[in-house]
Amino acid sequence: MLRRTIRKKLITTLKAVRVELRQRMHEPVPVQGTYLRSVVLGHIRYFGVIMNAPCIGAFHKEVCRMWMKVLRRRSHKHNLKWD
Questions:
Q1: Residue partners of 67: CB distance under 8 A and separation at least 6
Q2: Which of 10, 28, 44, 74 lies deepest, with the highest CB count within 10 Å?
Q3: Could you say which DSSP state residue 76 is in?
Q4: How does the average pLDDT of the chain come out, rounded?
Q5: Which residues contact 22 (CB under 8 A, 6 or more apart)?
Q6: Of 9, 4, 35, whose CA–CA distance to 66 is shortest?
């Protein structure tokens, strides 16, 4: 039996994370990382059931992408790389 995260819940959570990241934009990077780590771990603990790895991976990837966009907006230099 295949279990997947409900798309509506996934999108709602991602929108909430995006808003929170915009509010925390100028906090130090380790503080932002701690917050995002707790968000991702909470998502994994709640939705982490058998056969749901693709949805969990997609959530993690999207959170990383949003964080990179927020970090790039902190400066006009825009020299932040994925590494």
A1: 21, 32, 36
A2: 10
A3: S
A4: 87
A5: 70
A6: 35
